[in-house]
Specification:
By secondary structure, this protein is of the alpha/beta class. It contains 13 helices and eleven strands. The strands form three sheets. Strands 3, 4, 5, 6, 9, 10 and 11 form a seven-stranded mixed sheet that branches. A two-stranded antiparallel ribbon has the order 1-2.
């Protein structure tokens, strides 16, 4: 007999999800706007429906049992799907086709998402898009919470990749960038050791870019470059490049946008160190059904993927996600 036939209600699922998220019956009751005795009664009803306990005492508190955790995980997904359905119906009622919420790390945001959105404005002018450009840890957190429809990024270390469906897209080649008029722009180094005479600006130690740069330099027998400032901020890095003599390793896609052409304020150093950052992937929530608008935009974005990635099934993505920390 199904859980619905046994009497499972939406209020039961809401209680299980709130209890799993807060870890306390009182806080779960507060989140749902009910009294604590009512919350305890809902949990008792769930246990009667399942025929199994969903909570157990641990020290001075109460935790979910294995059955409780299983139901709570499903409850969270059901509630997310209901929220998505409500959003989609509201968009239809408002007369719009829909809204797609996209997350991407910087390189694919410029190289894939931006061109796709330009195309979508012509082919589907009633679709609205929201784009979040950030590090993968932030993007994956928002994706897991249902605040983004899909992400182009990496699953950070310490995050369970099983909560996402993923298709690997491509690695990121890296170029060295300096300001126009920089000595390295006018006199490309013949020996890579000459690059070590300059101060470099890099993200933090856990960034895939920093790790790829330092690993490649070590493989070439080069020392760690002078680095008086570390920053994950792309805007601050661009400002430093324009106002100082720093060298910045940037994704080739980013370098092509900001350091190419006669009017560009930045220049790519004509010396390839062979630096490549680990692949990024297309990520969606495990088992989630995209809205029609998100599926449409994803299809357009996917046209910019390499051929191997295009062959993936973007409605039912596989689980070849990258675990590189960002």
């Amino acid at each position: 007999m199904s859980l619905l036939a046994r009497g499972m209600k939406l209020s039961h699922l809401q209680m299980m999800a709130a209890f799993a998220e807060t870890g306390q019956i009182g806080r779960a009751a507060e989140r749902l706007g009910i009294a604590q005795p009512a919350a305890s009664r809902l949990l008792s009803e769930v246990e009667a429906i399942l025929g199994l306990p969903v909570r157990a005492r641990a020290g001075r508190g109460v935790v979910l049992t294995e059955a409780g955790r299983t139901l709570a995980e499903r409850a969270v997904r059901v509630l997310q799907e209901l929220a998505e359905a409500g959003r989609e119906v509201a968009e239809i009622a408002a007369g719009g086709v829909g809204r797609a919420r996209i997350g991407a790390v910087t390189a694919p945001a410029l190289d894939m998402v931006l061109p796709a959105l330009r195309s979508a404005r012509l082919s589907h002018p009633r679709i609205e898009a929201e784009v979040v450009v950030a590090a993968s840890d932030i993007l994956c957190g928002q994706l897991a919470a249902g605040r983004l429809d899909f992400v182009i990024g990496r699953v950070p270390e310490g995050v369970d990749p099983g909560q996402f469906d993923g298709t690997e897209i491509a690695s990121e080649p890296v170029a060295l960038v300096v300001r126009k008029g920089h000595h390295l722009a006018e006199h490309p180094p013949e020996d890579p050791r000459d690059l070590m005479d300059w101060d470099w600006v890099l993200p933090g130690e856990d960034s895939p870019l920093t790790r790829a740069v330092l690993a490649r330099l070590a493989a070439l027998g080069l020392p760690r470059p002078s680095q008086r400032l570390s920053t994950p901020s792309f805007l601050l890095t661009l400002a430093l490049l324009r106002q100082s003599n720093v060298v910045a390793p940037l994704s080739q896609a980013v370098a092509d946008h900001f350091a190419q052409g006669p009017d560009a304020p930045l220049v790519q150093v004509r010396h390839d160190l062979g630096i490549t950052v680990s692949p990024y992937s297309l990520l969606t929530r495990k088992g989630a059904r995209l809205t029609a608008a998100a599926e449409t935009v994803l299809g357009i974005v996917a046209l910019g993927f390499p051929e191997a990635a295009q062959r993936g099934s973007f409605g039912r993505r596989n689980s070849t996600t990258s675990r590189t920390k960002v």
